[in-house]
Write a structure and sequence with these properties.
Number of helices: 30
Distance between the termini: 76 Å
Structural class: alpha/beta
Number of domains: 3
Largest sheet: 7 strands, mixed
Strand content: 5-15%
Oligomer: single chain
Amino acid sequence: MANQPEYTIALAGNPNSGKTTIFNRLTGSNQSTGNWPGVTVERKEGHFRFADKTIRIIDLPGIYSLTSYSLDEKVARDFLVEREPDLVVVVVDADNLERNLYLVLQLLELGEKVVIALNMMDMAEKSGLQINHLAMAQQLQIRVVPTIGVKGEGIDQLREAIAQRLELPIPTPPSYYGEEIDEALSEVQQLLEQEEKCTCPTRFMAVKLAEEDPEFLARLQKMTRQEEIMEILNRFTSAESDIAVMLAEKRYGYIHGLCRECVQRRGGFSTRVSFSDKVDSVATNRWLGIPLFLFFMWLSFQLIFSLGNPLADLIDKSVGLLSEGLQGILPLVGVHPWLISLLTDGIIAGVGAILVFVPNIFILFTVFALLGETGYMSRAAFVMDRLMHLLGLHGKSFIPMLLGFGCNVPAIMATRTLESRKDRLLTILVNPLMSCSARLPIYILFTGIFFREHQGVVVLSLYLLGIVLAVAMARLFKSIFFRQDTAPLIMELPPYQLPVWGHVFRQAWTRTLMFLRRAGTVIVFGVMLIWLLASLPVGVEYASAASWIGRLGAFIAPVLEPAGFGSWQAAVTLIFGIVAKEVMIGTLETLRVSEEVLRLLFTPLSTYAFMVMALIYIPCLATMAVIRKEAGLRWAVLATVYPLLLGWLMAVLVYQVGSLFLG
């Protein structure tokens, strides 16, 4: 094993081509996730063994071409151009062949060894397409392997093709620019080969210079033969109004001819497209789209409570029995009362309070994974585009905002897909207003006590309030900091497809495990600190107003009095929620705030005001850290301060206005 040669291959492809499915099929459970060096773009890596080879796979962000606009695209291009992987597997959507082959041609120009995974062959057949993959392979001089990723078909053949292609020389890319342009590119290429500072493939750089790519023009300025190269390029660029468009047309012309030779259409229109169009006539309808989205949101919360609550009750009883059992056994073996209190009142009560809500959180993540797998998530962004654009946000911003329902940290990282820095900053600033899964236990606890008959509706109203406030604040920030127009939304709507339940549950379980890891780290330390403050000074009653934590809460409580929850327990809960929102429930449990105590401290109206405050006020420390990394210190300070003021103002408004109507 140790002597097996190891190869690095890149997995590339257009968004929605099934690339992630192919990655999962090739690597199985041999995967790891992290960030690319120097940036917060997620990096997926896996490996498999075939024959005598160990093959390491890097799953690149989805791209349409090697022209980079967003951070995602730049990361993918830099890896392909600078790192020079041993081979590139391009996942191609067989039902959208011409668009997907554009990236293949660019990679061949780059001088890469390429294997095509011709994916979604079943969808292409439903659309009436018959693809001669052998003829295509002969024309391009590369391996083309038909696959159906969701069913695992063709994966073994793909592994074999990868292993074989690694041993073969790099093919000569097809010629399609014409003699005059090819001669000019060859001359530029020869000059670039003499430049020590040219670190990327010379043919590829010659093409990018002809396209007037700003990044490569900047590289050219550092080279000694800059004037000679520009003189050659000017021979044919001066006659063209847009040379980049002309070169793209040449590529698409070749692709069109290739498809005419290798693809036949039968049966007229695509059955699948017809089905998608019929569904989209409702799902993306101007008047029905938003109500349908709200219905799915409401249905999601109904599922969360109807399926999750019975399991949560079972876990709650188990945690209670464990705590009672330890309180009875540990004194018999001479364990110090303080240690018993730390274990039962602190760690078990705090962490156990979070574990109770794991079923609800798992169902939440499952619902969002399901919406993504079926293709509806892109429709949600499309439906909301008009509203988002009206309020100053890009339509694509809605995807990171939806991800914020899971966790604000990866949601803020997801803003890298936005091309404009203005759109990125606006989305980052308002994303913490989206109600992450860590806030869900707070809602479940309080609505279960005060709004049991209407849990789903009350929780849905909080999520919608977060969305409304996010777009309102985006409008305000745009008018203050960014006055440029928002670019229109141009995005692909992937075909509807049946979910692969294995992928859905794997995504949900992975995100739930991340949540549990936080319960095992941040929350443990948080509840231990809370327990210590509730136990000191020595001699005071545990978790009383006379304890250090009671005094801290009493100092803050008057500020919260206008919002209807001016108790020291509520103040302390909000303070420790800054560390992590999960700690809020742990705080209440550690302080022995039972249902009976909550009914004394809160009314239904003040409860709702408290949940509004928990929704809006300061982001957790992890969110603040990622905002600082993504946007800078100045924006991180703004994203920390304004939610605190807005949360207090909204909570006071809810309570005071509600009191007028409720007497």
